[in-house]
Write a structure and sequence with these properties.
Largest interface: A-B, 26 and 26 residues
Distance between the termini of chain A: 37 Å
Oligomer: heterodimer
Structural class of chain A: mainly beta
Shape of chain B: globular
Largest sheet of chain A: 7 strands, mixed
Number of helices of chain B: 0
Largest sheet of chain B: 6 strands, mixed
Number of helices of chain A: 0
Order of helices and strands of chain A: EEEEEEEEEEE
Structural class of chain B: mainly beta
Chain lengths: 115, 118
């Protein structure tokens, strides 16, 4: 069964450093998403992406964040200058469409630790 | 904005017994989708079941079923014949059915941690 994959599974970085989290969505999916989950808290939406552009973003997704689909398979989240409060689990998700009750399938997550 | 509330931070159930996890939501929309996701210790989010708001019939998936009460804005998950592998965090999530702002994102509750006692 196709699945969303994410690398790395765990990333440790120093405050102020740039990180890139990578995701490979399911191959025939067209909509891509990033969510984050701070430890012990709810999962929060960051951004959705379709047709090579952002379709929606939350208040959390400020100028330090960016997303990109550099090739036909990868979908990346870049955090330009990490802060301590960026420490969280970051989940990538994809769906075939945005309409109907189309399900978002989640990857296993990347645990980001900012020191 | 929509909100999702899960009032039970933790629940436990004996193996082979039935447990119900609660979820309520607040929305002014009439058409939307509701989901239950499971997050085991591995932290991967796994879809358990989904419900379209326009459908009166409650969704079922094997041992998992929902009790969808649209007027009460309630969406509970029932797990029958609980198994050790059901132990996980369970998240209720809402998604608008309308296009436009807010239509893509899932809004999650805080989760309920389910323990299964052998």
């Amino acid at each position: 069964e196709p699945e969303v994959t994410q690398t790395p599974s765990h990333q440790v970085t120093q405050m102020g450093q740039e990180v890139i989290l990578r995701c490979v969505p399911i191959s025939n999916h067209l909509y891509f998403y990033w969510y984050r989950q701070i430890l012990g808290q709810k999962v929060e939406f960051l951004v959705s992406f379709y047709n090579n552009e952002i379709s929606e973003k939350s208040e959390i997704f400020d100028d330090q964040f960016s997303v990109e689909r550099p090739d036909g398979s990868n979908f990346t989240l870049k955090i330009r200058s990490t802060k301590l409060e960026d420490s969280a689990m970051y989940f990538c998700a994809s769906s075939r469409t945005s309409g109907s009750p189309d399900t978002q399938y989640f990857g296993p997550g990347t645990r980001l630790t900012v020191l | 904005a929509q909100t999702v509330t899960q009032s039970q931070p933790e629940m436990s159930v004996q193996e082979a017994e039935t447990v119900t996890l609660s979820c309520t939501y607040d929305t002014s929309e009439s058409d939307y989708y509701l989901f239950w996701y499971k997050q085991p210790p591995s932290r991967q989010m796994i879809l358990v079941i989904r419900q379209e708001a326009y459908k009166q019939q409650n969704a079922t998936e094997n041992r998992f079923s929902v009790n969808f009460q649209k007027a009460a804005k309630s969406f509970s998950l029932k797990i029958s014949d609980s198994q050790l592998g059901d132990a996980a965090m369970y998240f209720c999530a809402y998604r608008s059915a309308y296009s436009g702002a807010g239509s893509y994102q899932l809004t999650f509750g805080k989760g309920t941690k389910l323990s299964v006692i052998p």
